[in-house]
Amino acid sequence: MTNVGLIGVGAMGEPMAASLIRAGFAVAVCAHRNREPVERLVAAGAVDAGDPAGVGCASEVVITMVPDAPQVEEALFGPHGAVAAARPGTLFIDMSTISPVATAAFDARLRAAGHRFVDSPVSGGPARAATGTLALMIGASEDDLAAAEPVLKALGVPNHVGGVGMGETVKLVNQILIANIMVANAEALVFAKKAGANVDVTRDVILTATGANYLLDKWLPTTWLSGSFAGGFAMDLLRKDLGAALDAAKGLGVPLPASALSYQLYTAASGNGHGREDYSAVATFYQDATGVDAAKKG
Questions:
Q1: What is the DSSP string of 174-213?
Q2: pLDDT in tens, 10-34
Q3: Domains assigned to the chain
Q4: Is there a catalytic annotation at residue 194?
Q5: Which residues contact residue 231 at a Cβ distance below 8 angstroms, ignoring those fewer than 6 apart?
Q6: Coil, helix or strand at residue 159
Q7: Helices H / strands E in the chain, number of each
Q8: Set 171, 193, 240, 297: catalytic member
Q9: What's the predicted TM-score (pTM) here?
């Protein structure tokens, strides 16, 4: 049985750890601030390793699933980080969404310490994390991919997209797309509502036309159009991802004017108190400007 550690048992990490337990792995976890997810996972069969160092000591494979590069740094190389306690040759898999530049730096440091590294950011949100059906974008060597694949298959569908760092690059492509498509959906549906159209009918028609998209079809009915921005994917996390994409694009000399505007729209909505809500709350920017609520029936 492979011993797998998971650092970062938040909204995504907790259901991911549960999927690993169901798949038969011996799973070690640790708490950051909130102990409740750890207690639930221990009840399901996980081991509380105490801190990241304990996770590193107990595991052949260590997964990090944390908000951003500074948290990856702390989990791996901090005073109680996993690397110092890990046995030589430990396979580290970062499933956070961070800058490809930071990913390359972590890879170099881990290899210098005698370890292996894979980057595998995910898409699908907590619902698909709970069912083990996440889309995984993997940057790895062929040898490291072969070692990581049994663990990754318990979490979702692996897609090998290139060497280390390329997983993060492809994930940022996804984030650029969803950020801009969500803004387009919000803009269009508020326009429809203000013009007097029935939003439900409009959505049904668009889903048969060229404007159809996954967010309009699957995401919005459970978030904004349901009358609630609870759950989903936090706006401030998407803002962080967009910021990483904009920084990477600047280094590459690639203009991202639409994404820069979207970043400002999400920033405005976050500043109005929606940062922890689903990113469809960017619609509030348009609704506040027009005085209509596209989610309200009638």
A1: HHHHHHHHHHHHHHHHHHHHHTT--HHHHHHHHTTSTT--
A2: 999 999 999 999 999 999 999 988 8
A3: 3-163 (3.40.50.720), 169-290 (1.10.1040.10)
A4: no
A5: 126, 222, 223, 278
A6: strand
A7: 14, 9
A8: 171
A9: 0.92
